[in-house]
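Entry 14. Ran structure prediction on the chain below.
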Amino acid sequence: MRYAIGEIVLVVIGILIALQINAWNTDRLNRIKEQEHLSQLTRELKAQLLYYQDLKEQFAVVEKRVSRVVNIWASKKPIIKDSMQYLGDIRASGATGYWHKEPVVWLQLLETGKIDLIRNKEITDGLYTFYDRIEKQAENFNSYVQKLIFIARGHINKIHVDIPINELMDNWEKAATLGLKNQNTYPDTIYEEIWDMRMDMIIDFRTIATSCRIQQMWLKPTIKTGEELLVKLEAAQGITTE
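Output, structure tokens:
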């Protein structure tokens, strides 16, 4: 009887040890996967931050160029010092598009549930808020500002009926690459056409310039938040930034 009980105890102990070893091994593998996911998220966030920093700078350029056009159109005595720059600035009003960049790694981890392997909830909650905020802002831009940009593009292509301004600009840029930058590739009437249409376009152009400024204002703290998240991600992997 005692022998039988002893065997049962040994079997139970063996099972418990096996379960403990299995749990330890599972936890070890999960920690390896966790580090892999943290590394992937870090690389993706770095790429996202570079993209949004560049986007912020693009918005600044568009705002500057469109504002120059608005100032000329609003002037009682307009002076165009650089005709090529003037036409290029007008075309810049349609240069921005839907700018949201999907975080593929982040979305895959969410969809598969693998995000739960990351134990630091401050990081996962921070990333969720960060990416959700960016997506909503991009949708807001797409639903309102992008419509104005399409309208601006329509105005631009109406400026010269025979040859749209975009095609004219392309022709000039091609001429510039061939060393023919001073070649006159524009009909003289195009400036008169722009001036006659300015009152139809000025409100949309002002709104585009203002929207570009707002996008910059919004992106600045967003990028800062992302940089703070990046530090936390690196710290979770034992990476220190000097």
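Residues 175-184 have pLDDT under 50 and may be disordered. Will compare against last week's run tomorrow.
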